[in-house]
From TrEMBL:
Record-level Gene Ontology MF annotations: S-methyl-5-thioribose-1-phosphate isomerase activity
Pfam families in alphabetical order: IF-2B (PF01008)
First-tier enzyme category under EC: isomerase
Organism: Butyrivibrio fibrisolvens
Record's protein name: Methylthioribose-1-phosphate isomerase
Known EC number: 5.3.1.23
Location of the active site: D251 (proton donor)
Residues reported in the UniProt entry to bind substrate: R52, G53, A54, R95, Q210, N261, K262
Keywords: Amino-acid biosynthesis, Isomerase, Methionine biosynthesis
GO biological process: L-methionine salvage from methylthioadenosine
Listed NCBIfam families: eIF-2B_rel (TIGR00524), PRK05720.1 (NF004326), salvage_mtnA (TIGR00512)
Associated pathway: Amino-acid biosynthesis; L-methionine biosynthesis via salvage pathway; L-methionine from S-methyl-5-thio-alpha-D-ribose 1-phosphate: step 1/6
Keyword Isomerase: yes
The organism's taxonomic lineage, starting at the top: Bacteria, Bacillati, Bacillota, Clostridia, Lachnospirales
Length: 363
């Protein structure tokens, strides 16, 4: 039988002008692939978390802008670029925190502009078909790079672990949040292939249960020793000595190393510091935003109250009219982070210096 790991999180079905995603809101009960064809379908899929996780959102946005521009009726370079910008701004408005969304859209636009400039220098005029082909190749490159980057994060993260370690993770920074391996789960998958016999604990991750529905599902499907816990249980298993390392993903790392990830991550980091357990943030460089100076500058998405009051239960779970606070993410202070695991290696504090040097060395 096909496992959830045999499906692609995001794929381009170019022949029918569609992006194919697994509708993650239905997992683990139902594995349903859906086609996204219009701007509204792509926007809604990102907003509704049918496709989610920073890198997967970026890949989906890259394919999305390509699919939308493939239908462009523009008859000049100016018209094409203005339509591209409109579509880019629209897709970018679907979710504010994961920087991979704007990163992928900017990358696609930049590629188009530099291609048009090169063509001009070579004396060629604007050729829409050629630009569309460049967009296709760039969107597939973003996806291929995501797989390579996650594998390298896995190799670098694995150097921080020992056989038999207990690992805690929060939310889903797994294969379902990327195109393969995940970020926080990549060291776990690679270690599993190499006989590390990890014991993984997944925070269920309220309110939308990405830890229970997605991370526990994919790790368990891979045959990894997986235990699901409620979010309020992590301190007790840390105190009991069951956790040797914590690995989480992130949605945006600021230039000073503060890291935004799913709400509740900073609670785990704070408790880990108390118990002296290393807390690692796994971040592809596409998630590090040098234009965001500190965590205070990261826009935190606020989501609708019903996610807290009404979902996952047949009746409303909270009194009518009660006030609800529902931020999707929080920021973990860089002082609580033991290392940031990137595709280029493990960065250590002081992060402002380490991040700057990493970008300079890998231009
Ligand atoms: O709201 P979500 O499900 O998109 O939140 C996802 C997370 O917080 C992930 O940990 C993060 O995007 C990193 S994914 C590699």
């Amino acid at each position: 039988m096909k496992s959830i790991l045999d499906y692609e999180t995001v794929a381009l079905a170019d022949e029918r002008d569609a992006i194919v995603i697994i509708d993650q809101t239905l997992l683990p009960g139902q594995t349903k692939l859906i086609d996204l064809k219009t701007g509204e379908e792509i926007w809604n899929a990102i907003y509704l978390l049918q496709v989610r996780g920073a890198p997967a959102i970026g890949v989906c946005a890259g394919f999305g802008i390509y699919i939308l521009m493939k239908h462009s009726k523009a008859s000049s370079e100016e018209e094409f670029l203005s339509e591209l910008k409109k579509n880019k701004d629209y897709l970018n408005s679907s979710r504010p925190t994961a920087v991979n969304l704007s990163w992928a859209l900017e990358r696609m636009e930049h590629k188009v502009i530099s291609f048009i400039e090169e063509e001009k220098r070579a004396g060629r005029s604007f050729d829409k078909e050629a630009v569309i082909k460049v967009m296709h190749d760039e969107s597939e490159a973003i996806k291929a790079e995501d797989i390579d980057v996650c594998r390298r994060i896995g190799e670098n993260g694995l150097t921080l672990l020992k056989k038999g370690d207990g690992i805690l993770t929060h939310c889903n920074a797994g294969q379902l949040a990327t195109c393969k391996y995940g970020t926080a789960t990549a060291p776990i998958y690679l270690g599993h292939e190499r006989g590390y016999d990890f014991h993984v604990y997944c925070d269920e991750t309220r309110p939308l249960l990405q830890g229970a529905r997605l991370t526990a599902y994919e790790l368990h499907s891979a045959g990894i020793d997986t235990t699901l816990i409620c979010d309020n249980m992590s301190a007790s298993i840390m105190k009991a000595g069951k956790i040797q390392a914590i690995f989480v993903g992130c949605d945006r790392v600021a230039a000073n190393g503060d890291a935004a990830n799913k709400i509740g991550t900073s609670v785990v980091a704070t408790v880990a510091k108390h118990y002296g357990i290393p807390f690692y943030v796994c971040a592809p460089t596409s998630t590090i935003d040098m234009n965001t100076f500190t965590g205070d500058d990261i826009v935190i998405e606020q989501r609708k109250p019903e996610e807290v009051t009404d979902m996952w239960y047949k009746e409303r779970m909270a009194p009518e009219g009660v006030k609800v606070y529902n931020p999707a993410f929080d920021v973990t202070d860089n002082s609580l982070i033991s290392g940031i695991v990137t595709e280029y290696g493990v960065l250590r504090a002081p992060y402002d210096k380490a991040i700057k040097e990493m970008f300079e060395q890998n231009k």
